[in-house]
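note to self — DONT lose this again. spent like an hour looking for the file last time. sequence + predicted structure for the chain T wanted, 374 res
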Amino acid sequence: MKDAAHWLEALRGLEMDRPVRIMNVCGGHERSISMAGLRTAIPDNIELIPGPGCPVCICPEEDVYEAIQIALNEDVTLVAFGDMLRVPVNVPKRESRTLEQAKAAGADIRPIASPTEAVRIASADPKRTVVFFAAGFETTTAPTASMLAEGAPDNLLVLLSGRLTWPAVAMLLESETPGFDALIAPGHVATVMGPEEWQFVIDRHHLPAAVAGFRPDTLLAAMYAVLEQLKTGRRNLDNCYPEVVRPGGNNIARQQLDEVMEVYDANWRGVGIIPKSGFRLREEYAALDARRVFRSYADESRKRVGEMPPGCDCARVVLGKIYPNQCRLYGLACTPRKPIGPCMVSDEGACRIWWSSGYRENEWQGRKKEYSIA
């Protein structure tokens, strides 16, 4: 097995004759890249751009708001993945702006790490309704589908906010300024859905692509693969994570996703509607759908619904248009201790990752102008 040092040396030996921008879709990839200091180790003409792979960052504001209102107004226990508890919504300061604040106001809200915890909490008190606010991409939505397909407790409802990763990349590639020359696709998503989901990058857009895991060696191998494709002119989807990524993905997981959920045109926070990018529960599971069991908490009078907070550039960070430290609020008004935008909340958010990795300088403050990747 070739180690990171081998691939780093191979990268340097390619001697690319022009700058190359590589987008890494996954927040886990960005965390590994930043924590390992790969940006400072690779050749200067290779630019690594964080992409839209943070489910907390793009979870629609209206979904978070609905979760808060259900927890405050219904006699339920609401459970959610830990990062979701700190995601802010646009409401007056006198109201609960996060699930964390709603918990402090008296709502029964609990952080969990997996759907099995939701099942355990519901099973422990069968007379109490438990609502699982299930936000995430394919890798967390698939276990939620499995939980329902295999028989969840009757008192466990799901408030689903599931999204697919590839449609956001497709949207970027179909725009006039995609902002990248090659793609590193997420290995965990490919493990579930199959690497074939990313074949469109090659077939429709003729860009190099490779699937990578989360260690520095597999990420560097993927960088080498896409650069070698650019240099030679060949185009194919390289699998640099073969120990877990197999053709076709996980058939059982895909079957359960298809059984329990359907794909629809879904909203991404700050981005808008992306075709065929969301999961919702099928009609057969309506009795377990929190949106159908409870009355709607949509409030059309609220302003800025679905947008990022004022001054926040999270949407542009998610789309790879600017780097985290090019946001006007980065490290100034917005820090992990007092996050304003969702990208500073989640461990998979590029802003939080950059801050944790020691990138503290705000370019906007230092130069009073905006630097765009695209």
